[in-house]
Amino acid sequence: MIRLSLFSVAAVLLCACAAPPRALDVTRLERDIAAAEARSGGRLGVAVVEPTSGERWVHHAGQRFPLQSTFKAPLAAAVLARVDAGALSLDTKIEVRRDDLSVCWSPLAESFQGEAQSFSVLDLITESVTTSDNTAADVLMHQLGGPESVNVLLSKSAVVGIRVDRYERDLQLQFHGLAAYEPAMSTCEGMDAAVARVPKDEQLRAYEAYLRDPRDTTTPEAAADFLLKLDRGEMLGPTSTRVLLDIMYATKTGAQRLRAGLPPGARLAHKTGTSADTEGRNGATNDIGIATLPDGRKLVIVALLTDSNAPQETREAALADVARAAVGALASTPPGGT
């Protein structure tokens, strides 16, 4: 016969009933993200991770969403991995010829002079991430040997679910139903003129095909894994990690997205992604980032919105709502609290 003292029984009951405090208020996230999605006019994928505990919450887990320019953060990481390996340096000069110019959006292409200009690896990474320059991204991708090099880095880092398959110059043409690249497409005016010549029904067929295409997509949790491993220094060396995070902190796009939902004094290392509209439908309005709150706590936040019929202001407000919900879910359970 086994005898338990009253103290032993109490200890067993305490162990059975007590649970570690949660980092995230899941009930609040479920409520607030459902409301944000309802306002967004589309399908909203979300991942929120509290890095210290590793606790995460995902909305539309396992579903795929178009990356658009959010892929430029993993691309930058792949380039910096080459720097870590000694195959490149941040000062390495890369010649960009007029034939290398990509499609709008590309401030580099808009200001390009002559037949060739040289840019450092650091310049191209910075422009690709902070202004989302398509030419800078395509030149870096070519330097790596193609999109598969990005996937190799992600695989080595155990990030499963992100696919990078095409250059911007290919993806954006296919998105619009354009048959072939023309030099005029390197400017937004030229790109808009080319798209206007595509019949509306062909544009819509291309858009529908884009939504079904698994290429150049991610799941919310995979995007969060990338950010988490980058922030923890598990993907790059210390110097390259700092370089990329500093560049992401300096991102100039998406001021009304995740950043707008953070409290004053918070910092955000992030990358946005946006598609054009087709007949009132938007393929992607995205923002993924690492938020550092005024009290020093961090949150990884992923917001991926696809096939929305809402105007840009509403779409971006939905992403701000995601950040606001994530911070609210964290703030409701302070460190050491229950």
TrEMBL record:
Question: Which GO MF term does the entry hold, naming one?
Answer: beta-lactamase activity
Q: Which residues form the Beta-lactamase class A catalytic domain?
A: 45-304
* Native source species: Polyangium spumosum
Q: Alphabetically list the UniProt keywords.
A: Antibiotic resistance, Hydrolase, Signal
Q: Give the EC number(s) listed in the UniProt record.
A: 3.5.2.6
Report the NCBIfam families cross-referenced here.
bla_class_A
Protein name, per record: Beta-lactamase
Q: Decide whether keyword Iron is in the record.
A: no
What does UniProt give as the signal peptide span?
1-23
For this protein, the record's InterPro entries field holds: Beta-lactam/transpept-like (IPR012338), Beta-lactam_cat (IPR045155), Beta-lactam_class-A (IPR000871), Beta-lactam_class-A_AS (IPR023650)
Similarity annotation: Belongs to the class-A beta-lactamase family.
Catalytic activity, reaction form: a beta-lactam + H2O = a substituted beta-amino acid
